[in-house]
Design brief:
With about 110 residues, the protein is mostly helical. Helix 1 packs antiparallel against helix 2 and helix 2 packs antiparallel against helix 4. It contains 4 helices and no strands. About 85% of the residues lie in helices and about 0% in strands.
Amino acid sequence: MKNYRDVIDKMNSLVNDYHRMTDLDGHTLSMILKDLSSALYYLETIRAEVHAKWQGKVKELIDEGSSVARSENQAHVAYPEMYELRRIMDAGYEIVGAIRTNISHLKHEQRLEL
């Protein structure tokens, strides 16, 4: 398994590139969108793996007699990447949506110029 932190670092770099754009360029936006979407896909596979482990931990703790709430809290401590991935990926999907909106706006402006 590839280190998911490397993918998060790549996503951070892409978001910074997007943030620093002073003039929106359709080609650059499309490249950022492609790379960001690919990173999110990869992180989804990692999140699915971590979620399976997290669920296993919850079941194990419940079987040992812990309450569901306590088991979930302990599983979150054992697998902190669950929360981290969820929050980073949610933000990543929001940025993907913003980039799509920018691209759509550029296409609309281009049509008006013709």
